[in-house]
Amino acid sequence: MLDFITEKTDCWDYLKNTDLPVFIYGMGDGALKIMSVFERYGIPLAGFFASDEFVRGHIFQGHLVHTLSQIEALIDDFVIVLAFAAGYQSLYDRINEIAKRHTLLAPDVPVAGKGLFTYEYCQKNAEKIQYVYDMLADEKSRQTYADVINFKISGKIEYLNRCTSPKEEVYGSLVPLGDNEVFADLGAYNGDTALDFMSACESCGKNFRRLYAFEPNPKNFRKLTKNLPESDKITLFNAAAGRENGTVKISANEGRMSRANGSGKSVEIPVLAVDEAVPENVTILKLDVEGGEREAIFGAKRHIAGGAKILCSLYHRNEDMFDLPLLIKSINPELKFYVRHQLYIPAWETNLYCVPK
Hints:
Elements: H1 11-17, E1 22-25, H2 29-41, E2 47-49, E3 59-60, E4 63-66, H3 68-74, E5 79-82, H4 89-101, E6 103-105, H5 119-124, H6 126-135, H7 139-154, H8 158-163, H9 169-174, E7 181-186, H10 192-203, E8 208-214, H11 218-227, E9 234-237, E10 240-241, E11 246-251, E12 266-272, H12 274-277, E13 284-287, H13 293-298, H14 301-305, E14 309-313, H15 320-331, E15 335-341, E16 350-356
Parallel strand pairs: 1-2, 1-5, 2-4, 5-6, 7-8, 7-13, 8-9, 10-12, 13-14
Antiparallel strand pairs: 3-4, 11-12, 14-16, 15-16
Helix pairs in contact: 6-15
């Protein structure tokens, strides 16, 4: 079982046992999370560095922040731990260039929930992980699934380099578009994925019937209304998607990742079950709700059981890699399952695609 998992040494154990100094690349929330794990594992930290444009006498957690060139001038060899996300090509390429000169790891720290995705964690959930691997519909999905899990354990970015797929593949082959699609966008942010869907429809000469977009964060919702104004075909909800109708408190100050019970200023917003909010049959359901996918799936059971095509994030919680595919399959076993990873370090933008057989 789990023969496709070849990485058995967690990146944290590697960092604890290396004789080389360890520097964190980046500042902010990601660095704080990684430092917390360093303390738990007893990993010594040599210091921080940042991109040249961010280094102007910065002090972070009591450390003077250097540039990479400053550290390279003083130390021949060291290990770099990436503490921020890279989701666009030029930054992605810069990180890979650095990785050619030094050992560079991008530890997987979950966006939501607790714990770490370690080899031991995989062993504890081996039966579920193997089941998902075996039920995937094509070899590319199985290879991507294996690569992402091996990355999560080891932090080695070459696994993500190998399995990265172009965004254009989504509507080009994975999720075929028909006429009169009804698209429900859960976690619409500023409308980016909804606009991708509309553009794909236009490119292949298909008309969509309706588009429903759910975005809980008030700041993001204002961007959404500007980029995707309501019309006779577009309905916007300033609400979170959940298991049942109600309310929830979220952070009012965060950007894309507004989480329930966030720190700082909070705001109470509605929670809507998609089964209740959308009366007509959804034909495409997209879920990217920052760790709330499980609850949103339960709130959309009618649409899923009815054969909706699904685009679902698999990277917010450790358990998403196996729990979400298994949950969707339990609701509608007559679906084919695919996994793809789009350009991103760490393994964000690892998504599940489900289509009727």
